[in-house]
Amino acid sequence: MRVLFLTHNFPRHPGDVAGSFLLRLAHALRDQDVHVRVLAPGAEGLAARDVVDGVEVVRYRYAPRTFETLAYTGNMAADVGASWGARGALVGMLLAAARTTRRESRRERADVVHAHWWFPSGLSATMPGALGGLPLVVTSHGSDVRLARSTRPARPLVARVARRAAVWTFVSRWLRDEARAIAPIPDAEVIPMPVAAERFSPPDPSVPREGLLFVGRLNAQKGVADLVRAIARQRVEETVTIIGDGPERDMLRALAESLGVASRMRWVPTVKPDELPRYYARARALVIPSRGEGLGLVGVEAMLCETPVIAYASGGLTDVVRDGETGLLVEPGDLDALAAAMDRVAGDAPLARALGTRGRPDALAAFGAESVARRYREVYERAVASRRAAS
C-alpha cells in the first residue's frame, strides 16, 4: 500500500524534532507494508526532494523565499494573524499543497492521502482536483482543534473537511469530542501517535532520582506559570528542571525571581532528543500543567522510563495518566493541589516507585509503534474500501 502524508510539519533533517512523531509513524508503517511519501512545505536551505532517515520527502514552494517561514516553527497561527504577508503565504501554501498532492498521487500511484492536522493540510486536500479520486484520512493532533474551537469562521471549514474524509482520527478522546462539538464527524477514531519505545527504558534502580521535571514549549497553553507558582507553595523543597524555550521564557524567569524560587529552578533551553531519556530517568516525576493538551507524548515517554507523571486532568492527558495508578491528576488551576501532588511524590519514594512501575506497561500497550501502525494500516484499508463502495 502507498500513502501520501500531507503535512506542514516534518523533520527537516535527521535529529530534527519538528513533527518527529510523523517520522516514527512512517517508519512503523513500513513494517506493515505501507510505503509513505511525505509532502511538506519548502523553507530556506531545504531541497525540493529529499530522504530523511529513509523516508522520501517532497517539498513544495508556496511563496517567495522570504515569506516561506510559516512551517516547522509552531507559530503559524500567530504569524498569520500578525502579518498580511503571512496571510498571502498561507493562501499560497493551501494551493501549492493541493497541486502537489494531485501531482504526487499520480506519480506515486498512491492509495490514500493522509492529511496531518485538518488545517492547513486537510483543507488543502479538499480543494478541487487535489485528491484525484483517492480516499482522504485526516488526523488531528491538537493545535488544529484548538484553532477551530477559538475561531468561529473555521467551523464551516471543519465541516467541509469532515464531509470529504473517509476516516478522521484523533490522538485522544478529548480531541475527538471537542471536534464533534464543532461539526458532525461520522467516522471518528482515536489512535495516538507512536513513541520511540526503544529509546526510553527504566534506569538502573541503584541510580537515585532527584528533583522534578518539565519538558515542553514555554507558552501559555503549557501552563508553566502555574508550575512556578505551585513550586512556591511546596513544603518539600527540591530542584525543578525546565527543559524548553518559547515566548514566555523571560516572564517565567522573572516570576520565579519574584516568588523567591529562582534558586530551585534549572532552565535548559534545548536538549537533543537522544539526551531526553537521561533526564526522565533521573527525575522523581514529570509535571505537565498543560490545559487542552492534545495528547501529551512527553508523559508517555516519562512513563516508559518508569517516571510517574503529575498532570492537570485536562485534554488528552486523561488518556495518558491513570490517576493514582500511573501518576497523579489534579484539577486545572488548583495550585494547592498541584503543589500537594508534587510534595506527595517527592516525600513518598514507595508511592513514586509504584506509580512509575505501573506506567511502563500502560505506555507500551497503548503507544507502541507496532500497535499504532497496525491500527493505521486498518484505517487505510477501510478508507480504500469505502471509496470503492461509493464509486
UniProtKB/TrEMBL annotation:
Top-level taxon: Bacteria
Residue ranges of domain Glycosyl transferase family in the record: 212-360
One example GO MF annotation: glycosyltransferase activity
Record keywords: Transferase
InterPro entries: Glyco_trans_1, Glyco_trans_4-like_N, Glycosyltransferase_grp1
Coiled coil regions, renumbered to chain: none
Residue span(s) of domain Glycosyltransferase subfamily 4-like N-terminal: 20-194
Name of this protein: Glycosyl transferase group 1
